[in-house]
Every structure is written in C-alpha cells, then in structure tokens.
Specification:
The strands form four sheets. Strands 1-4-7-10 form a four-stranded parallel beta sheet, with no helix packed on it. Strands 2-5-8-11 form a four-stranded parallel beta sheet, with no helix packed on it. With 179 residues, the chain is mostly beta strands. The protein is 4% helix and 29% strand. A hairpin with a 4-residue loop joins β13 and β14. It contains one helix and 15 strands; from the N terminus they run βββββββββββββββα. The chain has one domain. The longest helix has 7 residues. 42% of the residues are buried. The chain is elongated. The chain starts with 6 loop residues before the first strand and ends with a helix.
Length: 179
C-alpha cells in the first residue's frame, strides 16, 4: 500500500515497460500501478492500465524523461490518469478514459487531441473478467478513427466484435430452415 502498487523505479534507469497489463493495483498515496522518480529515463510502450486505485493516480511520472506511447489508461478508481510535479511526460498515441480523478488534466492537458492522443472508451472485450482484447470497433485498434496514424494502443490485439461471414448458396440457406 505504499508508492507504486505494482511497479516502482527509484534512482535507477533507463527503464522500459512494454506490453504489460496493470489491473486493479492499489497504493496508499502515489501511483497505483507505476511510480517512477529520480530515474534518468522511463518509457512505457503498448501497455494497458485498468481499474487501478490511488489518490496519486495510476501513474506518477517524477523523473527527468518519461515517455508513454501507444498505451491505454482507463477506469482508474481514484486519482488522475497521470500525476507529475517535475518534467511533463511526453505522450503519443495514448487513450486516457474514465479515470475518477480526470484523464487529460494538469500538466498533460495540452497533449489531448495531438500526436494521436484520444479520450474514448477503449471498448475492451470483457475487462471485468480480465479480457483486455479490443473490440473490432475500438478506437484503440490499429490505424482506426480517431487516430489513424497510430498502430495498436494497449497491450492486447483486437479479439472480439462483428459477426463472421461464411460463403454459402441459396440452396443451403433454404435447407437450414427446411424450406
């Protein structure tokens, strides 16, 4: 229940966090999922953060260079998506959505709407059951609206949605229904 409920970097680096899922982590004061301070360089790439809870938010970015790329920070139960007091973290192709303390707030507010950064329901297949694959209509799917310049956002690929199409003949359709 201290700082960094899942992962904490202090006086080390550089660090790379890639293709990870941070679900339902809790911290008492700062950063439910990832706490990074006094680190020379931290990059978060293609990660999914969901349902984390801390008054200090999901991520605390307290080091000199903090980059978040192609990631989703959604449905944080307490605090903002990202909190920082030093250098402003650089975000690109990120979806911040439904976080109790705010999404694009504080020092990162001016990054919303640029560099592929969005605020939209990521449309997970079944997040409550731990399925963070994306619906085919998700704005986080590769090269989809509203961020067609961005590849996959988050750690999980498209895994649900739509109805499969099967080629058949009129005779086979009639046979199915006994006509």
């Amino acid at each position: 229940m201290g700082d960094g409920g899942a992962l904490r970097f202090v006086i080390s680096g550089p660090n790379l966090v890639e293709r990870c899922t941070f679900k339902s982590n809790i911290a008492g004061s700062w950063a439910a999922a990832l706490y990074s301070e006094k680190v020379s360089d931290t990059t978060v790439r293609n990660c999914t953060f969901w349902g984390n809870s801390s008054p200090g938010g999901t991520i605390y970015a307290g080091n000199l260079r903090f980059v978040i790329e192609n990631s989703i920070i959604a449905h944080g139960l307490q605090g903002p998506a990202i909190l920082n007091f030093h250098e402003v973290p650089m975000l690109s192709c990120c979806d911040l959505f439904g976080n109790a303390g705010g999404d694009w707030v504080g020092t990162i507010a001016d990054q919303f709407g640029i560099n592929g950064n969005i605020q939209a329901d990521p449309m997970f297949c079944d997040a409550e059951q731990g399925d963070f694959e994306l619906n085919q209509d998700s704005p986080c799917a590769p090269f989809s609206a509203p961020n067609p310049q961005c590849d996959l956002l988050g750690a999980w690929p498209v895994g649900c949605g739509g109805t499969p199409v099967q080629t058949t003949t009129w005779g086979r359709v009639k046979a199915i229904y006994g006509e």
